[in-house]
Specification:
The protein is globular and about 45 Å long. Helices cover about 30% and strands about 20% of the residues. The protein is α/β, with parallel strands linked by helices.
Length: about 160
């Protein structure tokens, strides 16, 4: 299957969360992807078994994603980048959250990013991102980087993260 999505996950001292999230992705996601796990200089425990980029110094989450993007550049061209944080958890055991987001982006070339809705018990101040019923995408005023999917050509055109 064509690997169209680079999944970028930065980890610091949370290998159990990272491993669980990687296993959820590998079990559920049906879209073609490359999973890029960046260890952000974990120093209290062993890194995740899924680590494929090891940093010697902690550069915070965004710096870790940038290191992951550099690794993705070496792997090839991607249509999308999916940024995840280690506190992300998918609550439905069988639902593939990535494929519908990719399908939406494919069908809506004017969209540059999409994010799955958060559950009502999420610890967030971004109430506009909490599910309101239904599964249809809706426009919102901003998305967070909990599980954001961006169009790679757009993301690269703005200079990625600054």
């Amino acid at each position: 299957m064509l690997e169209r999505v680079a999944i970028l996950l930065t980890n610091y001292n949370m290998p159990e969360r990272t491993d669980a999230l990687c296993e959820q992705i590998n079990k559920r996601v049906h879209s073609g992807y490359s999973l890029i796990v960046v260890d952000n200089a974990t120093d209290l425990v062993a890194p995740s078994k899924y680590t494929n980029v090891q940093l010697k110094e902690n550069v915070q989450t965004t710096g870790g994603w940038l290191a992951g993007l550099e690794h993705a550049d070496k792997l090839g061209n991607f249509d999308y980048y999916w940024f995840l944080i280690t506190s992300t958890e998918f609550t439905n055991d069988t639902y593939d959250v990535l494929t519908p987001m990719v399908e939406f982006m494919d069908a809506n070339p004017e969209a540059v990013g999409i994010h799955p809705a958060l559950t009502g018990d999420s610890t967030t101040h971004w109430s506009h991102m909490i599910a309101r019923g239904g599964n249809e995408p809706r426009q919102t005023w901003m998305i967070d980087n909990i599980a954001s999917l961006y169009r790679a050509d757009w993301f690269n055109s703005i200079g990625r993260f600054d």
